[in-house]
Amino acid sequence: xxxxxxxxxxxxxxxxxxxxxxxxxxxxxxxxxxxxxxxxxxxxxxxxxxxxxxxxxxxxxxxxxxxxxxxxxxxxxxxxxxxxxxxxxxxxxxxxxxxxxxxxxxxxxxxxxxxxxxxxxxxxxxxxxxxxxxxxxxxxxxxxxxxxxxxxxxxxxxxxxxxxxxxxxxxxxxxxxxxxxxxxxxxxxxxxxxxxxxxxxxxxxxxxxxxxxxxxxxxxxxxxxxxxxx
Length: 230
Hints:
This protein is α/β, with parallel strands linked by helices.
């Protein structure tokens, strides 16, 4: 038996989720895998991909230990994923948190006006062009979109609150998009320990009752990258 270790780096996308799906499925199903280690260095990304990976990690955790180690940054969707693990550890200089939701839409009408360009929009459905970059949204549209974002935010917030066993009043204070240092994250129950990868592995061995060798695995690169040799 052995411990499987993989790194989750860069922007969380649905393509990234698909690339990790075989690894996570393997970790869950193989009896030869005693535990799983996730090494994070990601500022987050797509909410759907983050939730899908979070659910997979939580599923694996029910069968075997899953330990997360933050080596750089673990923020927003990446932190959501990490909360599915059994325990979360961080290097002393890492950054953690950013529990919140953000959506940015460019507004280019002033630029088009300067260029003398006018957009003709044909639509069926009152809100079909609600997120258009070519006009200002109405107050009603702003309220509607904020409700959409708030629903995603509440799912994220409630997942963290439940998995980390944080009281609702405290959660409201720390789920405002802030980034925390490891010591601040410890105070707010967002992580379980501060140290090195080796010190975390010692804790994992204690939970497993013995030491195991570690095997590193990374997702298979897209065929075009393999073809180009990048």
